[in-house]
Design goal:
The complex is a heterodimer of chains A (115) and B (112). By secondary structure, chain A is mainly beta. Chain A is 0% helix and 54% strand. Chain A is built from no helices and 11 strands. In chain A, the strands form 2 sheets. In chain A, strands 2, 4, 5, 6, 9, 10 and 11 form a 7-stranded mixed β-sheet that branches. Chain A is globular, with a radius of gyration of 13 Å. With 112 residues, chain B is mainly beta. In chain B, 0% of the residues lie in helices and 54% in strands. In chain B, strands 1, 3, 4, 8, 9 and 10 form a 6-stranded mixed β-sheet that branches. Chain B has a 4-stranded antiparallel β-sheet with strand order 2-7-6-5, with no helix packed on it. The radius of gyration of chain B is 14 Å and the shape is globular. The chains are: A mainly beta (115), B mainly beta (112). At the A-B interface, β5, β9 and β10 of A face β3, β4 and β9 of B.
Chain lengths: 115, 112
Amino acid sequence: GAVVSQHPSRVICKSGTSVKIECRSLDFQATTMFWYRQFPKKSLMLMATSNEGSKATYEQGVEKDKFLINHASLTLSTLTVTSAHPEDSSFYICSARPGGSYEQYFGPGTRLTVT
Amino acid sequence: GENVGLHLPTLSVQEGDNSIINCAYSNSASDYFIWYKQESGKGPQFIIDIRSNMDKRQGQRVTVLLNKTVKHLSLQIAATQPGDSAVYFCAENSGGTYKYIFGTGTRLKVLA
């Protein structure tokens, strides 16, 4: 149980284009989903917290107009990287939290490469 | 902040030996702590957790120790195996929010 999927697993896009990453909780309803970014050999950095049906809360220094988050249902959140640049190349990981729990279940990550 | 981009420390251990991975957490109000294992190109994998009302918790081959006085968390892996080679992260959660703060991570290398 408690499986989280991400799609795509890896994507290459050209500079200036937008890329959408999906995060799904497959066997539970996620009250909250989180988006992290991880650069090579570094730790996970929380980008934003996404609650179903409400606006995402972004961490300091994360541009909300660049990283658009939509949490339209209790099993799906999407992260759209708009006007991507090479410095946005990173490993993006989502996690999902069931209601009433502190536990987060992590997805397998999405490798974004912007050329 | 706690997740500044520092160089990833490495712990090398001989196969069969015990491993101890340490983590200093930042917030004295944190009440839930988790250890994750991350293999290259994959998402974090849950290993073990502990709440602040405990100082020790054991799982299969793993033990987590919590010292709230000095804000220190450790992960002990018994009889380390080649499959344990990965990067290990601690994470803390403050009761006021559901957000996790991740430590900088430690790379564990198991030598045959």
